[in-house]
Give the backbone structure.
Amino acid sequence: MTYEEVVAKVKDALKDVDVSNVNEHAAYQFNISGEGEGAFYVEIDNGKLNVEPYEYFDRDILVYTSAADLMDILDGKTDFVNAHLSGKISAEGDLRKAELLKDFGKKAPAKKTPAKKAPAKKAATKKPAAKKTTAKKAPAKKATK
């Protein structure tokens, strides 16, 4: 994977990430080592996310990782915090802002349109069959003389 492919995959993976609730500025520079080596940045600025193939000198966090480990994060196989704790990535700077990356590999939930319910079918109501009763005849009275 080339450097250009890494940046393109990151841009594509993050295009639908919802950061609209982030009302601050945070800049992360990623230094990729090994295959696809190079630097790029991810910037969150008042609810908007940008990915650019440049160094960011006034960054909040500097992240060191391989392209493969970064792709695992973007694919949701691991999260940013667990990757850091397991040594797959290292970071320096204002790590408080790493909290903003906790959903780094998660896309915004798709807006669901309410499903239309089919009209409920009325249950066929059966009337109980009328009981057939035969009227009993009263015994005939004997005529008295």
About this structure: Helices lie at 3-14, 67-74, 80-85. The CA atoms of residues 26 and 44 lie 5 Å apart. The first strand starts at residue 25 and ends at 33.
